[in-house]
Amino acid sequence: MMKQKSKASSAALAFCVMLATTFGPSATRASAPQLSDAAGSYGITAASRIHFSVAQVGGGGIAGDFGKFSGNFRIDGNNIARSSVNFTLYPESVETGERRVEDFLKSSAVFDSATYRTVTFRSTSITQTGPDTAAVEGTLTARGKTRKERFSVKLMDWNNRSISFKIRGSIFRSPYGMDVGTPIYSNVVEFDMNIKGQKR
Amino acid sequence: MLQNSKSAFGWVTIILHWLIAVLILALLALGFVMRRLPLDPSLQFSLYQWHKSFGFTVLALAALRAAWHVLDRQPQAPAGLSALERRAAGTTHAILIVLALAVPVSGWAVASTSTLNIPSFYFDWFVIPHLPMAKSEAAESFWTSAHSILAYATLGLVAFHAMAALYHHVVRRDDVLVRMLSTRPQRRRELEKTKSSQVIAKRK
Ligand code: HEM
User: Fold this and answer.
1) Is there an atom of ligand 1 within 6 Å of B27 CB?
2) For residue B6, is it within any domain?
3) Which stretches are annotated as coiled coil (chain B) (predicted)?
4) What is the ipTM for the molecules in this complex?
5) Are A93 and A68 in contact (CB under 8 A)?
6) Count of the separate structural domains present in chain B
C-alpha cells in the first residue's frame, strides 16, 4: 500500500508525521513508512462507523448506521493481495433516527433480524488500485443468501498501533430478497464506512 | 346525453357517481385492512402505496364531480318527494361531495406531515409532491385521526344514502335509484304496467 510514494501520499504522510511528532511520542518516525510497517493483524474497533443510505424518488432517502459489528483484518507486509478481512454486523442494531423505519428494516420485510442475526463479509481477493487505495472483493451473506460483492478502500490515517480506512460500496438489495419498497426506494444501498483497526 | 337534463342525470354524472362510489368503498376496506389487521410488513407497505395511488384517483374524480355539480344543472327531484325529503337529499349529496374531497385531502396531509417522509409515487409512474406542511409526529397523528374520522363518517353517510335509495326503489317504487343508473329511465309504474300486460298476453 505504501510502496508507491505519490505526491498526495507523501503530503499526507508529512502531515501524519507532524501530528505524530507533536502529539505522539511513540509514533515518531523519520523515514517514509513501508507497507511492512502497517503489516499485522487488527481488530475493528467500536469507533468505526458503518453508515448506509438508500435514495428515494424525488430526492432524499433513508440513511443510518449499524451500531453493533465486529471484525478483523490482516495486512500482509510482503504481498498486499494476501491480506484479508472478515466483518460481521448485526442488523438488529440499525439506527436511522426514526423508530418505525428501524422496526421495518429489522422486520421480515428487510433483514429479518430475528431469523438472520448477522450480515457477514469475507474477503476473497484484494487488489491495490493506487498508492493508498485498494479494491476488496468477497462474499457477502445476508438473509441466508451469499453473493460476491466489491468495496473500495482508501487509507485515511495510521500509526504503528492503529489504522483507519474509508470504505465504500454499492450493493443491490434485490438479490438478497430485500427489494421491498422498490422503485420508491432505490435498489442500491450505498455503504460509506470508516473502519478503524487496532493492532493486536 | 352527457349533461343532465331537466328530469334525468347525464352520463357524466352517472359514471362519476359509480366510479367514485366503487373506489371509495374499496379504499375504505383497503384502509381498514392495511391499518387494523396484522399483516406481513412488506405487504402492508405495498397496500399503503396502492391506497395512496387509488386515493389520489378519487381526489381527481371528486374534483371533477364537485365542479360538475356546481356547473351542470340539477334535474328536478322525482315527483312525490316532500320538501323535507328534498332538503335532506340535497344536504346529504352536498356533504358527500365535500367528503369525497376532504377524505383524500386529509390522507394527503397524513402522507405530507409524516416523519416517515414516504414519497407518493402515483402507480410507480410519477411523484405527487407532499403538501407544504411541516412534518412532525403531532401533525401526523392529528391528520391520521382526521382522515380516519372523515373516512368512517363517509362510510356512515354512504350507508344512509344507499338505504334511502333502496327505500325509494323497494318501498316507494319511484325513480330515485333508477335514474342514477340510466339517462333514460323508463317510468317504473309504466314499466310494470307493460310487464303485467305481457304476462296477461302470454296467458292467453
Ligand atoms: C376517498 C379516498 C380515501 C378513503 C375512502 C380512505 C380511507 C381510509 C381508511 C378507512 C383508512 C383507515 C383509517 C383507520 O382505520 O384508522 C385510511 C388510512 C390511511 N389513508 Fe386513506 N383514504 C382515502 C384517500 C387517501 C389518500 C389520497 C391518501 C394519501 C395520499 C391516504 C392515505 C392514508 C394513510 C397514510 C392512511 C394510514 C394512516 C396511518 O396508518 O397512520 N388516503 N384511509
Assistant:
1) yes
2) no
3) none
4) 0.85
5) yes
6) 1
